[in-house]
Amino acid sequence: MNITKETLELRVVAESIRLVTLQTLAHIGFGHVGGAMSIVETLAVLYGGELKCDPQNPDWDARDRLVMSKGHAGPALYATLSLRGFFPKEMLKELNQGGGRLPSHCDMNKTAGVDMTTGSLGQGISTAIGLALGMRLNKANNYAYLVLGDGECNEGQVWEGAIFAAHNKLGELITFVDWNKQQLDGYTKDIMDMGNVEEKFRAFGWHCQTVAGHEPEKIKAAIIEAKGVKDAPSVIILDTIKGYGCSFAQGVEANHHMNFTKEQMEEAIDIQVKRLEAAKTSAKEGKGE
Amino acid sequence: MFTVNESFDKTPKMMREIYCETLTELAQENRNIVVLDADLVSSSGMKPFFKQFPDRAINCGVAEANMIGIAAGLSAMGKIPFAHSFGCFASRRVCDQIMISAAYAQQNVRIIGTDPGVTAAYNGGTHMPFEDMGVLRSIPHITLIELTDTVMLADIIKQLEKLYGVYYLRMARKNVVSVYREGSTFEIGRGNVLKDGRDVSIIASGIMIGEALKAADMLRSEDISAKVVDMFTWKPIDAEIIEYCAATTGALVTAENHNVIGGLGSAVAEALVQTHPVPIEMIGVKDRFGQVGTEDFLREEYNLTAAAIVAAAKRAISRKK
Prior knowledge:
The structure holds 2 protein chains of 2 kinds.
Chain A: H1 5-26, E1 30-31, H2 33-38, H3 40-50, E2 65-68, H4 74-84, H5 124-137, E3 144-149, H6 156-167, E4 173-179, E5 182-183, E6 186-187, H7 188-191, H8 197-203, E7 207-212, H9 216-227, E8 234-239, E9 258-259, H10 262-285
Parallel strand pairs in A: 2-3, 3-4, 4-8, 7-8
Antiparallel strand pairs in A: 1-9, 5-6
Helix pairs in contact in A: 1-3, 1-4, 1-10, 3-4, 3-9, 5-6
Chain B: H1 15-29, E1 33-37, H2 41-44, H3 47-52, E2 57-59, H4 64-76, E3 80-86, H5 95-104, E4 109-114, H6 132-137, E5 143-146, H7 150-162, E6 166-171, E7 192-195, E8 200-204, H8 208-220, E9 226-230, E10 233-235, H9 239-249, E11 252-259, H10 264-273, E12 280-285, H11 295-301, H12 306-318
Parallel strand pairs in B: 1-2, 1-3, 3-4, 4-6, 5-6, 8-9, 8-11, 11-12
Antiparallel strand pairs in B: 5-10, 7-9
């Protein structure tokens, strides 16, 4: 795949989201670090252009919708929405503050730009299907995007939804599975091995792709392909690393919800600032790594 | 405003027929009405609706949790979803989906749970909801209604076209005792005094209203004057009418086709102790599971009869200070 200027810019967006996510978590000293880090590149591609939205008008009828079913990735979504202009960066300090607008799990009634309330795992696929059916009934030219965790796929409701979406040829639904291979209690292969998730979705009748989940250009290409599939729901399995890019989280088994020291986070932010600078330099010079 | 029939025969039509007719009528005018079912379209009587509005009638298969979530998502797109199943599968099986996807997310969803309590008859213990209202009653802001007859059913469904929120309607599917005259209208959250009385108040719901009215007649023959209230809204409970009943009669009996734990008896008692405590006796299922049998057999088995209400009324009166 060619490294285009756009690709390089998407990498800058991703590294910006990762930095702001870390800064957001830094305010409170703990949080769902692992699953926030692994979904950053996908958010960069969606809010970097693939998902139709208007930050000045978050409730715009003609927007696409995102259901962050793995609702614990809220901090990454909040960082993304803030960078996209849905609300000021200052508001990110409200993460998990009593009375604040940024709860640990996504809440559509509290946060501008959040399209569905999530957090009870497995439920997002059904609400996303409802959104997609609503788009179909309204004859709207939109997509419902859904992000599932790989651990979340343990939930039976995911597969109820998978059957329904295929039966109803729900091309309006584009699903991502954040295949970061870890769940709260450890590695998915040890806790509840889902086997080949792509083959499972394929057996259910979905259009399936697996892509490198930390390479924005590959995610983008997969979304463009998925948009062209009108007679089946699409799933894009994101081959990711839980905690990716965060020095104290990546490679750690218990990185779902973490406490971290000020020093650990400062170090992680320092590294991330350098990654962002490097991405910006590449984008400016117009060349890849 | 409502008016009560002079005699209490069975409704000429089944509840499910009126449900289908009313929704069909509304859906002709309102394109946002969407119906969801979970492989019980034949039972819910909604085949005509599915035929007339195939794009707005969604059979979710045997997957109730998914159905409730889809209803919530449709609501977020401005639709007005009505989702139905047997009461047990429309409540306890989908409690978390109703709680989070619908209620906590502040969506606009109507859920119809059919075959309440002993009306599930031959389907037996697995399908006999004595707990549906109790399971849902602790969900904030949900409205719980047990539909009394076809007149109320049609009026409430029409009201729900305009209202917003999560509503659970407990509904018998077949013919029920006809309590209200055609043209009656109902205020959600307000109990209806069907019969006035001085000595005891019977606060009833669903199929127990017919029994309560019979019990009031039986009590009158013994010179006991019983007030009968149709408490069709279980949540929010009408605390004002409970206080009024307590103040004017000094003793209460609740009567429900449901477990008294978490049910109407609990809801009335909770309101009563905070306003005007008086003796209260509860007729209802006493912490038991369902089983197979005819509805008549089951009414006797669980003590859901006019005779049981009469005995309870006398106990309540005897406990007055």
